[in-house]
Amino acid sequence: MKRAVFPGSFDPLTLGHYDIIERGLKLFDEIILAIGVNADKKYMFSLEQREHFLKESFKDEPKIKVMTYKGLTVDFCNATDSGFILRGLRNPGDFEFEKAIAHTNRKLSQIETVFLLTSSGKSYISSSIVRDVIRNGGDYTGLVPDAVRV
């Protein structure tokens, strides 16, 4: 079985994430949407809300699992017997950042990272932009899946 982990904070899940996950389903038998838990980070949405966003958005997709984890992503991959990490790239800055992480993960474990380019119509969307729009009372509904529209 080709299992991939798609790690992130998903604070919140965006249409950019959704795009990568949907396209990743064509490549993998199973994708684990892995919500990283970092006690030092301030989140806009609770862990329970973020889990709900993911589970609700993919409730009809049997190839998707939603899990949480702490620590190194490669350790989580090994614990879940996942041979791949799935990541999305929006721009050259993402590539440089993600490339360094992928090389480090490959050095620590034999986990392969698979990069997908975000679709052009969604490449500008990031969780930080969505949070800023929400904080300032803007209309964020065109940036997130239905389950996130609170």
How would you describe the overall organization of this protein?
The chain is α/β, with parallel strands linked by helices and 150 residues long. It has one domain: HUPs (Rossmann fold, 3-Layer(aba) Sandwich). It is 36% helix and 21% strand. It has 5 helices and 5 strands; from the N terminus they run E-H-E-H-E-H-E-H-E-H. The chain has helices at residues 15-24, 47-57, 73-79, 92-108, 127-135, and strands at 3-8, 30-36, 64-69, 84-89, 112-117. A 5-stranded parallel sheet has the order 3-2-1-4-5, sandwiched between helices. Helix 1 (15-24) links the parallel strand 1 and strand 2 (30-36). It is globular and about 45 Å long. The mean pLDDT is 94.
Task: List the SSEs and their pairings.
Blueprint: E1 3-8, H1 15-24, E2 30-36, H2 47-57, E3 64-69, H3 73-79, E4 84-89, H4 92-108, E5 112-117, H5 127-135
Parallel strand pairs: 1-2, 1-4, 2-3, 4-5
Number of strands: 5
Q: Sketch the topology as an H/E string, one letter per element.
A: EHEHEHEHEH
What fold name goes in the CATH topology slot?
Rossmann fold
- The separation of the N and C termini measures 36 Å
Strand content: 15-25%
Radius of gyration: 15 Å
Count of the separate structural domains: 1
Low-confidence stretches: none
Structural class based on helices, strands and sheet pairing: alpha/beta
CATH architecture call = 3-Layer(aba) Sandwich
In CATH, the homologous superfamily goes by the name: HUPs
Large-scale geometry: globular
Count of individual helical segments: 5
